[in-house]
Q: What sequence folds into this?
């Protein structure tokens, strides 16, 4: 067995050193192209910064677009690493060994692209620090920041810890001096002794268990950004698991795509064999079926329930709208066709086109998943509760060139980071493979140990397939451009002649009238019929004419509230039921009642009194209680979130302590 | 408060005999629409007019101890000088600096407590300066008392944590009632709002929708401002507390803190929020900003209907209410159980809602809006013309 291990070690060192070579012209063209795209995207972003978000296709109704789609998509891709690496490592699947590195690197780089997408989407990226200065724990965005930050740190740590044995292995077999220095530095003196190995396994074991719930939390929280709102199509209870499954699905597809590309570009046929592709294809079938199941249950329920607003959303998705072709494309080419292709891939034997097919399938899956995220975000925003047509507003969203170029820049940056990583560090986790061969044999690990490079599976040429795919995608996006035309609704304000009528009563005539004395009091004994207190106005005048009325009014902030008008009886008395339930002064409950003679040509007079007995305003003990809408965080959030983050970080620190131990042992 | 109310007060002064005060006579009646317009439009006022305090200005500040004197409010306004805006700013500056240095430290748990403590301190020092500058048509902030432009003033500006702005007007619960039976869809409310908030034409903080209910039901106009919900979905999701709910019921946005993530726009089920997507021309001087005036607006931030708290502080109705000559929009204080229209016709809120079957739009969402609608029963206008095949959309 040790002979085999030594043989593979020789192969691997040679092969990996070959991957570090940067001299090939193809590589330089590739990097140049990526840099050109990134440069253009950078310029586009500067332009967007200067001009504001008006350079995008987003407007007040559809206020999130491609950037949010990118965010959700990249966070989704990042789940590749967790699943392949952590779950398979925990369950000790032997075939995982050659592909863990690729998967972990995808996680880190996808996160590094996905997280800044939110900042690109922000109207004021210069104020991003406000999130820390004025952060509200009640906001799902804060949850996102915490969980993504924890996830990025975790995956970096995870990638690094798993890399240490390889760093140590390659330390002495490197051509480039700077790389040698880097490896020596990063390997922290790891020599593979028993104690060091034990410490490393403890660190790795701890992180790979804790990273699974962290990863699940990340995509759950991403979905909660949508599902915590009251919007149709978003406010769904299954969104958490739905997004998690979607993320693992697209992440797994991405890792298969990456494997095929690396296998072809770096001639890694020896390490990435049919064993791995078939195992991953089986996983893809399961995830694909699960995702179809979730999608069907999501849409079937709202379609059957026929809630008015859900129904309108489904009309946008599946009916006559620019989004319908995308939606149906997502179903046919993003879910069902890849399912059939992966099933065929699993049952086929030695087909020449096997890898091409699985490559097409995984690319289709990720195009479908990108569309799915786009179709979750945009059509919901096009379905407001009060239909925009009722105000003659035309809503549409067509991503602009700036948005597409920044998106392309994001993808290019991801590919660049991934490529550069593979040029500096071994993309196959050699040490882990060797360990696997030592433990269970090369066959189970799936590594070919023959002398010559294996012919099967054939290298596969996905070039044509990808061209067809891109054509398909463009074809699909075309109708979107044709249908949707932005037209800002113009309002023609008719300048009608304004009828400015003075609201104030004309009381200037009062001067010429006879002034009389009026008494106002609150009398509780005027009526025997009920116990209600009465407001009583008494006119002190020898001769009270008939038909004289007294109006009882109470001043309110913006006007005078008339309690009632009462005709005065022979004795000059007018009484009105006192409105006990009317709020009075804030603290005393007093009401400032005015009694005034109205409907009289010869008399004028009024009296005002502060009458106790109105409703007292309850003093507000706490106008800003702990509530989700308030600046004060709810207790349960305040306790849960720091506790959960604290738990995860404790494990990280545990791993770091073990790394320090390795370093100490290496120093001896 | 309108002219009739003011005059009624003066009248009773004349007949009461005890509290007769010649100085009170000199007060100009305030709260009058024309008067405020004069200030806003920069119409020339005599100096003596300017110096006269507004009779009802301090209605807002009515204190329990002045209750024995019916005209306490006027008396207070008369004798006292205007709040010296500069005074105390140094002390607040120190406080602010202290707060800033602590802000990062107290990011999570301690933050709220610290903020509240700070806020309380502010309340105690600034009780006499509850008024806010008014925005004139040419975008200048003027003092409502003097009509003079207001200098950049830390009291009202750049103060996200300023208690008067964040806490709201004490003991008030602003409420709006829209009578759909009276609305004729003339959009004068929209135009007035746009004029005073200097908004571009397509941005309508109060927007008129043509609504139709079930087939056969009458179509009606539906003015939609911000609902200033009591359980607002927008403030729930704001990551930086830039949009906030005040104790007087108003939901405001601090565009000096807003990071432009637009989560609040996604969360608002009523689509009342607008985003400043691009640069705003002719808006270079951003000094005189307060969340209560919502202007000058800033690029990359969210804005919406604010219930005109700057007007409310002066005891004046919001612009859309004063502009609605149909009297379809009523506004008032729920704590007073009264709403008034532009003429000052005042109704008991509870009675109005009971008698006219008032409702809140999309009550089932549980957002508890502060805007009530009265159904479009027996409308007094021509209903909007709507395509008969259009799908019904109704609350």
A:
């Amino acid at each position: 067995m040790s002979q085999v291990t030594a043989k593979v070690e020789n192969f691997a060192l040679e092969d990996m050193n070959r991957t570090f070579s940067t001299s090939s012209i193809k590589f330089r063209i590739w990097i140049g192209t990526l840099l050109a795209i990134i440069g253009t995207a950078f310029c586009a972003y500067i332009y967007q910064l200067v001009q504001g978000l008006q350079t995008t296709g987003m407007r007040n109704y559809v206020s999130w677009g491609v950037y949010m789609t990118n965010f959700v998509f990249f966070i989704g891709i990042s789940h590749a690493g967790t699943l392949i690496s952590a779950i398979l490592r925990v369950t000790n699947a032997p075939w995982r060994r050659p592909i863990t590195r690729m998967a972990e690197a995808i996680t880190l780089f996808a996160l590094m692209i996905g997280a800044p997408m939110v900042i690109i989407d922000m109207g004021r990226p210069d104020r991003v620090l406000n999130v820390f200065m004025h952060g509200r724990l009640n906001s799902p965005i804060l949850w996102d920041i915490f969980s993504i930050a924890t996830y990025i740190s975790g995956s970096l740590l995870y990638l690094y810890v798993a890399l240490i044995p390889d760093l140590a292995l390659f330390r002495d077999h490197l051509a480039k001096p700077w790389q040698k220095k880097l490896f020596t530095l990063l390997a922290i003196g790891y020599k593979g002794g028993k104690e060091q190995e034990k410490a490393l396994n403890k660190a790795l074991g701890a992180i790979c268990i804790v990273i699974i719930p962290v990863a699940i939390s990340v995509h759950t929280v991403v979905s909660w950004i949508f599902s915590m709102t009251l919007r149709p199509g978003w406010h769904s209870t299954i969104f958490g698991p739905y997004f998690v499954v979607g993320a693992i699905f697209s992440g797994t597809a991405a890792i298969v795509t990456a494997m095929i590309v690396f296998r072809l570009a770096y001639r890694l046929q020896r390490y990435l064999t049919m064993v791995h592709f078939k195992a991953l294809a089986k996983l893809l079938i399961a995830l694909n079926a699960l995702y179809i199941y979730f999608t069907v249950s999501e849409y079937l329920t709202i379609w059957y329930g026929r809630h008015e607003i859900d129904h309108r959303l489904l009309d946008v998705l599946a009916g006559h709208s620019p989004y319908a072709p995308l939606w149906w494309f997502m179903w046919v080419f993003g879910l069902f066709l890849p399912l059939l292709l992966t099933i065929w891939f699993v049952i086929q034997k030695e087909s020449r086109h096997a890898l091409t097919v699985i490559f097409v399938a995984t690319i289709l899956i990720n195009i479908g998943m990108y569309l799915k995220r786009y179709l979750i975000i945009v059509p919901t925003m096009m379905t407001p509760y009060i239909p925009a047509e009722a105000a003659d507003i035309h809503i549409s969203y067509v991503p602009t060139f700036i948005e597409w170029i920044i998106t392309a820049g994001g993808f290019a940056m991801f590919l660049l980071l991934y490529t550069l990583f593979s040029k500096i560090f071994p993309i196959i986790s050699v040490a882990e493979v060797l360990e696997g061969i030592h433990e269970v044999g090369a066959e189970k690990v799936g590594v070919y140990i023959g002398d010559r490079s294996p012919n099967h599976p054939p290298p596969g040429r996905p070039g044509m397939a990808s061209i067809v795919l891109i054509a398909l995608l463009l074809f699909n996006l075309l109708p979107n451009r044709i249908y949707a035309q932005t037209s800002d609704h113009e309002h023609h304000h008719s300048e009608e002649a304004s009828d400015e009528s003075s609201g104030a009563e004309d009381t200037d005539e009062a001067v010429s009238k006879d002034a009389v004395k009026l008494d106002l009091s609150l009398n509780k004994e005027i009526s025997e019929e009920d116990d209600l207190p009465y407001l009583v106005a008494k006119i002190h005048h020898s001769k009270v004419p008939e038909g004289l009325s007294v109006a009882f009014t109470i001043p309110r902030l913006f006007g005078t509230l008339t309690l009632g008008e009462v005709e005065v009886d022979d004795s000059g008395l007018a009484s009105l039921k006192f409105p006990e339930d009317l709020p009075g002064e804030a603290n005393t409950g007093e009401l400032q009642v005015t009694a005034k003679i109205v409907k009289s040509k010869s008399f004028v007079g009024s009296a005002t009194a502060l009458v106790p007995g109105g409703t007292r305003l309850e003093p507000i003990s706490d106008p800003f209680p702990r509530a989700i809408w308030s600046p004060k965080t709810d207790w349960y959030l305040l306790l849960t979130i720091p506790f959960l983050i604290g738990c995860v970080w404790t494990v990280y620190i545990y791993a770091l302590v073990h790394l320090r131990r390795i370093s100490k042992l290496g120093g001896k | 408060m309108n002219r009739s109310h003011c005059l009624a007060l003066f009248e009773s002064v004349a007949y009461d005999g005890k509290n007769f005060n010649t100085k009170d006579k000199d007060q100009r009646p305030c709260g009058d629409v024309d008067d405020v317009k004069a200030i806003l439009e920069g119409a020339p006022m005599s100096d003596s007019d300017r110096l006269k305090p507004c009779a009802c200005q301090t209605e807002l500040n009515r204190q329990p101890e002045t209750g024995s004197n019916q005209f306490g409010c006027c008396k207070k306004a008369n004798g006292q000088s205007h709040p010296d805006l500069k005074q105390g700013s140094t002390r607040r500056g120190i406080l602010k600096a202290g707060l800033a240095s602590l802000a990062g430290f107290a990011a999570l748990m301690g933050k709220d407590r610290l903020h509240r403590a700070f806020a309380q301190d502010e309340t105690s020092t600034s009780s006499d300066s509850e008024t806010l500058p008014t925005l004139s048509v040419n975008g200048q902030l003027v003092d409502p008392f003097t009509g003079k432009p207001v200098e950049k003033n830390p009291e009202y500006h750049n103060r996200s944590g300023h208690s008067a702005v964040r806490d709201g007007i004490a003991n008030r619960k602003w409420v709006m009632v829209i009578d759909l039976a009276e609305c004729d869809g003339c959009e004068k409310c929209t135009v007035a709002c746009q004029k005073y908030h200097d908004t571009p034409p397509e941005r309508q903080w109060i927007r008129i929708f043509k609504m139709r209910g079930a087939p056969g039901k009458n179509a009606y106009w539906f003015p939609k401002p911000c609902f200033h919900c009591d359980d607002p979905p927008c403030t729930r999701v704001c990551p930086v507390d830039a949009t906030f709910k005040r104790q007087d019921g108003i939901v405001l946005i601090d565009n000096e803190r807003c990071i432009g993530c637009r989560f609040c726009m996604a969360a608002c089920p009523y689509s009342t929020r607008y985003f400043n997507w691009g640069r705003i021309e002719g808006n270079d001087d951003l000094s005189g900003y307060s969340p209560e005036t919502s202007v000058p607006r800033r690029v990359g931030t969210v804005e919406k209907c604010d219930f005109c708290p700057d007007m409310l502080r002066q005891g004046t109705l919001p612009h859309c209410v004063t502009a609605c000559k149909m009297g379809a929009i009523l506004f008032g204080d729920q704590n007073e159980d009264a709403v008034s229209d532009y003429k000052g016709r005042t109704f008991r809120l509870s009675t109005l809602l009971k008698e006219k079957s008032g409702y809140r739009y999309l009550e089932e969402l549980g957002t508890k809006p502060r805007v009530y609608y009265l159904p479009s029963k027996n409308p007094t206008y021509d209903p909007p013309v709507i395509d008969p095949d259009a799908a019904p959309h109704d609350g």
Notes: The radius of gyration of chain A is 37 Å.
